[in-house]
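2024-03-11 09:14:02 DEBUG pipeline.ingest accepted 1 chain
2024-03-11 09:14:02 DEBUG pipeline.ingest length=474
2024-03-11 09:14:03 DEBUG pipeline.predict start
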Amino acid sequence: MNDKRWDHHIGGVSTPPSGGEYLDEIDPRTGEPSFRIARGNAADVDAACRAAETALATWRDIKALDRGRMLVSVAHAIRAQADDLARVEQIEMGKPLNQAKIDIEIAAQYFEFYGGLAPAVEGETIDLGPGKLCYTRKEPFGVIGAITPWNAPINQAARAAAPALATGNTVVAKPSEFTSVSTLRLAEIIAAAGFPAGAFNVVTGTGTEVGAALVVHPIIAKIAFTGSLRAGKEIGMRAADRVIPVTLELGGKSPDIVFADADLEAAARGAVRGFTVNAGQACIAGTRILVERSALERFLPMLRAEAAKLKVGAGEDCQVGPIITAAQFKKIQEYFEIARSEGAEFVTGGKVHGDRGFFVQPTIFAGLTEDARAMREEIFGPVCAVIAFDDEADAIRMANDTNYGLAAGLWTQNLSRAHRVAGRLQAGQVYVNEYPSGGVETTFGGYKQSGIGREKGREALAHYTQTKTVIVTL
């Protein structure tokens, strides 16, 4: 057991929980306790919000170019400490170290990208004719509440914090109680970079005790949330009661469409990556693989063969790590039974892996109907379902027949079809001949119940600023 105890990060310093209680994190590779984190409450949230409000008065008035330089310095510090940060994420998530290092690099890229854009946040002039000067200003909301999930902790924390800080806001972050330490490490890095004390605060603990208190706190001017649809709905209702804006990035049941004219071997490789990335614990995972009927008999053996190449475990040579929580591990096993009861053919997998930790075999279902639960509900593990379609119109109909709309993929060598189908898919991101794709520069968010607002790319800056119009009579 790693017996290091971690406190909140409030006002630029490590701060013990007001209630004096701590929670154990669990190493998903072993099922044993690892770090201990502070169990926060409403009093801790209040202290963090007040620290953020105090810092706001200084931070929002710092020249944008200087704010940008400070964000870039955070990126350099993240890279300098990448090995240590990756080991923390490996303990918290069980992710193979080489994959954890990718998440650390992405976190650095967020601060680098938004550091460069900070001076480019600008308004416009509006011609009202002689005797009038009209212009707009892009101003920060104030204190942002960022509630982040367990499936990519430092990546998600950076995704919210970097654009919020770049635009002059301050932040109170509430990471998942299962993966809090990497966000606390990020807070230490931000403090060491010379940001005003309280510019970035972290309160750890449960959603019911910390997350709920954060959403209703009167100082919080906006909520950025990534997580489940159920929690997102609750947060949205509480925020609506206060009339504050939200960015909600929620679940997905993303289609990955394979046309018969595609490079089927490449499609099989990409489709397997699409549903096993991060052990399937990704809301963009391509878990509904739609295959043109004339290609299904050729494609299924290729898909099975690609899945068989993956090594499950936490070693450097592994591609599929563990499920992060015991509850999610149990949920996936329940879906195996649900799929069996619905008549699924298990092309591969359908079992846990090993007798220690929370590992699951990559699993492919076939033979399900469109309305099967395993076809329609988000499982959040390395599990996909394959189903046939007849033509392009059928593929589009089936792909869009879901309450979600976060991502979609399609594989074809027909350029016209690629653009035509991409334009009809109800999804915030569409990947053509690769799954997934993009980077910190690419705008991200969902259609339908996959969320509200956008993260990543230049567009995220608009979601962390509000527009003021100034009209001057000359």
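2024-03-11 09:14:41 DEBUG pipeline.report The CA atoms of residues 70 and 195 lie 7 Å apart.
2024-03-11 09:14:41 DEBUG pipeline.predict end
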